[in-house]
Amino acid sequence: MTTHSAPAPGHVTKTPPVTVVKARQSLGSRLASGVSGGVLRVFLLLVGLFWLVPTIGLLLSSLRKPEDMSASGWWKVFSEPSQLTVDSYQKLLENSDITNSLLNTVLITVPATLLVVVIGSLAGYAFAWMEFPGRDWWFLGVVGLLVVPVQVALIPIAELFGKIAIFGSIIGVVLFHVGFGLPFAVFLLRNFFAEIPRELLEAARLDGAGELRLFVRVVMPLGGPAIASLGIFQFLWVWNDMLVALVFSDSGSQPITVALQTQVRQFGNNIDVLAPGAFISMVIPLAVFFAFQRQFVTGVMAGAVK
Q1: Is 187 helix (H, G, I), strand (E, B) or coil?
Q2: Which of 19, 153, 250, 274 could form an SS bridge with 168, CB 3.0 to 4.6 Å?
Q3: C-alpha dihedral (102, 105, 106, 112), degrees to nearest 10
Q4: Measured between alpha carbons, how far is 154 from 242 in angstroms, rounded to an integer?
Q5: In whole angstroms, what is the distance from residue 25 CA to residue 31 CA?
Q6: pLDDT more than 70, % of the chain
Q7: How far is 124 from 57, CA to CA, in rounded Å?
Q8: Is residue 278 a contact partner of residue 166, using CB atoms and an 8 Å limit?
Q9: Cβ-Cβ contacts under 8 Å for 56 (sequence gap 6 or more)
Q10: CA–CA gap between residue 170 and residue 255 (Å, rounded)
Q11: Quick one: the chain helix, strand, coil %, rounded to 5?
């Protein structure tokens, strides 16, 4: 039988030095530790600036005269800042086609976003926490609608809208966007609401809260990040859409994307209107995204970490 003698008094157990521990780390771990500081931040900053180059170029082009844009690139303003002017934006405000289309874009995007968020939130809560016959089958049907491409429904829905006299109107464009935005909204919010602890909802019911009050007072505040993410997705999709608007809108209801596409046919004569119009069409979605980027990131990451 082997016995181990106790360490002598005053004996100190030696531990491997830090250098030995570092030497045992893999090459990937050492590289990851090296770039986790300032080098990574500088790299991400450069990537962000590179991503903004088209936007900056469009902004500077919109502040130049047509003859300057025809003669040289937008980077010429750094050596000749006197080229910058706001005359193009003044002409843009005088172009009724562009200004009316910008208003139509707002009238299409805001209702389409709000309706998808509200209806999707209610349906997502119902599929997550309410019992009704065929609930799971109905939800599978909603998930199945996610794979239906927009192009398949253009002609049938155009014929339907023509029969009910809303083809070519803002209402028709809004309804199409709502119909195709709801499946993703219901799928996203149902999965998010299902992660809410059941005990929290049961406690609210014991306090006398009905389903509507429970949804407004408990579920909506907890689902804020997911709802904000959905709102941003829907807003960007509708604002930048051209296919649906090109099919379902007419000259009086066309959004900014269709109006700019129409102006491109006369590019040589109205470049001073196209540049500021395109910049305004780009900068508004960017402003919305950056304004709600914290909620967007929180909503996207929700559920990724258990």
Answers
A1: helix
A2: 250
A3: 180
A4: 13
A5: 10
A6: 81
A7: 42
A8: no
A9: none
A10: 9
A11: 75, 0, 25
- Examine the pLDDT at 34 and tell me if it is beyond 70: no
Of 78-82, 90-94, 296-300, which gets the smallest average pLDDT? 296-300
CB 123 within 8 A of CB 184: no
Length of the chain measured in residues: 306
165 dihedral zone (left: phi>0; alpha: psi -120 to 50; beta): left
CA distances from 277 to 47, 61, 283, 287, 291 (A): 26, 11, 10, 16, 21
For residue 240, pLDDT beyond 80: yes
More confident site: 43 or 15: 43
- Residue 306: pLDDT band by 50, 70, 90 thresholds? very low
Tokens coding 100: 């009316």
Over its C-alpha atoms, the chain yields an Rg (Å, rounded) of 28
The label of the residue with tokens 């289309």 reads 101
pLDDT score of 51 more than 60: yes
Return all residues near 204 (Cβ < 8 A) that are at least 6 apart.
214, 217, 218
- How many helical (H) and strand (E) elements, i.e. helices and strands, does the chain have? 17, 0
* Main-chain dihedrals φ then ψ at residue 168, nearest 5 degrees: 85, 5
